[in-house]
Each structure stands twice: as C-alpha cells, then as structure tokens.
Amino acid sequence: MIKKISILSAVVVVIIVILAFSLTDNSDNKKTDTDDLIVQGDVIMPTKVSRPGCEVKDICYIPSSFVTQKGKPVTWVNHDSAFHSVTSGFYEEPTDLFDSGHLDPFESYSVTFDESGTYDYFCTLHPWMKGQVIVE
Ligand SMILES: [Cu+2]
C-alpha cells in the first residue's frame, strides 16, 4: 500500500513538472511572437492615450522628449488600439514640417532631421498629446 502511494505521488510530481514546463514554454513563445509583431521604435504612443490624462505625467508619447543626432531617423510606433498622428507644431498651429497622417495600431512612422533644433509635435486627433524631438 505504501509503495502504491509513493508511486502515485511520483507520477503526480512528474505530471506537475511537465505541466510547469509546458506552461513556461508557452509564455516564452507568446513573448517572442509579440516582439516580432511590434516594430521597435524610438518613441511610442502607449495604450489609452486617446483619452485625456496622459498629459498630466507627460506620457502621451514615450519619451515625450527624444534627443537624437542629425541624419538619424526617428521612428514612432503606435502601440495603442486607436489612431494617432505625429504632426509638427502645436494643435491648430501645425508647422507643415512633417505629418504622419493617421497611424493605425502598430503602424510606424519615421522622420530624419537634417538640421539641429527643437521640433515640437502633436496628435491631430487628441489635442492633449504633445511631444518634442531635440536634434543635436
Ligand atoms: Cu492621438
């Protein structure tokens, strides 16, 4: 009887170990799949910024101020489920230097700056979304 119980518990332990391994494997695979799908960007538009609130902590674009060098492309990626834009200037005062148009979820947009300076930009759909690129 004791032998039966110890064999049974050994089987249970083996099953638990196998389950634990398969669960770990799955989560690893999921992470890799997601990483492949999402374009890596310099600046991201995080989730839930289509409603006001992100401006309080200045996280409508992350980072809200991005420092780069001349001639190096800056890439924005929309990580939100809503449309956003990257448009030069300020809300209702665009400067027409660059404009991504409406970016779909997970779409990216790049701009290469040839002159140093501070470039303010905003989202045409959400007036509270502001960011800037500092080109050195
Ligand atoms: Cu937006």
Name a few traits of the molecule.
single chain; 136 residues; alpha/beta; Immunoglobulin-like; five-stranded mixed β-sheet; three-stranded mixed β-sheet; 1 helix; binds copper (II) ion; ET_Amicyanin; copper; electron transport; Cupredoxin
What is the gist of this entry?
This protein has 136 residues and is α/β, with parallel strands linked by helices. Helix content is 26%, strand content 30%. It has one domain (33-135): Cupredoxins -  blue copper proteins (Immunoglobulin-like, Sandwich).
Ordered list of secondary-structure elements with their pairings:
Blueprint: H1 2-37, E1 43-45, E2 65-68, E3 73-78, E4 87-90, E5 93-99, E6 108-112, E7 117-122, E8 130-135
Parallel strand pairs: 1-3, 2-8
Antiparallel strand pairs: 3-6, 4-5, 4-7, 7-8
Low-confidence stretches: 15-19, 25-33
At the third CATH level, what is the topology name? Answer: Immunoglobulin-like
Main sheet summary:
5 strands, mixed
Q: What is the CA–CA distance across the termini?
A: 78 Å
Reported CATH architecture: Sandwich
Topology as H/E string? HEEEEEEEE
Helix content: 25-40%
CATH superfamily: Cupredoxins -  blue copper proteins
